[in-house]
Structures are given as structure tokens and as C-alpha cells.
Design brief:
alpha+beta; two-stranded antiparallel sheet; 3 helices; globular
């Protein structure tokens, strides 16, 4: 069976998201819920780097409308392997606004996959949403 370039890209993206989630579970297991988002972001970035993946934090995301580039102050929490957007939260539960934020970031950045991770949960499994554009 031949694998085409789209299937290969999807397999690579799945591997990246699996690695990110392994790192997130490690951080959550060590720290638990209740800390500031910035603490989880720093620790998750550290774990992702340790896993061998390239990660950028607080990556600026300009809004481009026709020929106008607007530096609106949008920032991605984490961008992993220049492909997967990771948006971190420490909230009681996800709302439609959180999902809309990730979808908007995917659209603006022309990326396909994002992870919305809420560290303020007893079980991290309850705080993960994979978002695909």
C-alpha cells in the first residue's frame, strides 16, 4: 500500500500531537491543577524541548487582511514543529469562546491542527480537545 503525501503529513502531525500530550500528562502529573497558566506553559515547553521537538512560545500572530498586516497582539501559547498550535487554559471548563479562539488561530495562521489543553482539571483527559480545521 502506497502512502501519499497527505497521509504522510497526517501521520507526522499525529506523532507530534501524541508527543505533546505525553509531555502535558507528565507536567500535569507532577504539578496537578491550581497553578497559573504561565507555569504550565513554561513547564510544558521545557518537556516538549526535552522530547526533541521544536517549540516556540508566545509566537506573534499578525492578522493579514488583503494587503493590510495588523499586529493586533495575538500570540500563540505554543507552536510545535511550526505545525501544531497549543493553547493552554486554567479554567473551570471549556467554553465556546475557547474553541473559537483556537479555530481562529488555526485560520489566521493557516495551520490545520490545534490542541486546547486545560490544566485546571483533576484528570487531564477531561481537559484536552484536539481541534482540526
Amino acid at each position: 500500500m502506497k502512502i501519499n503525501s497527505v497521509q504522510l503529513k497526517n501521520m507526522e502531525t499525529n506523532h507530534i500531537t501524541e508527543q505533546i500530550l505525553k509531555c502535558a500528562f507528565k507536567v500535569h502529573s507532577a504539578l496537578g491543577p491550581g497553578l497559573l497558566e504561565s507555569a504550565y506553559q513554561a513547564c510544558l515547553k521545557y518537556e516538549i524541548i526535552k522530547s526533541g521537538l521544536y517549540v516556540e512560545s508566545e509566537k506573534a500572530l499578525p492578522l493579514i487582511y488583503e494587503e493590510v498586516k495588523l499586529d493586533c497582539g495575538y500570540r500563540l501559547d505554543l507552536l510545535v514543529e511550526k505545525e501544531v498550535i497549543v493553547e493552554l487554559k486554567t479554567v473551570e471548563f471549556f467554553t465556546d469562546v475557547h474553541l473559537a479562539q483556537v479555530l481562529t488561530y488555526l485560520k489566521i495562521s493557516n495551520k490545520k491542527v490545534g490542541l486546547l489543553i486545560n490544566f485546571n482539571t483533576k484528570s487531564l483527559r477531561d481537559g484536552i480537545k484536539r481541534v482540526v480545521l
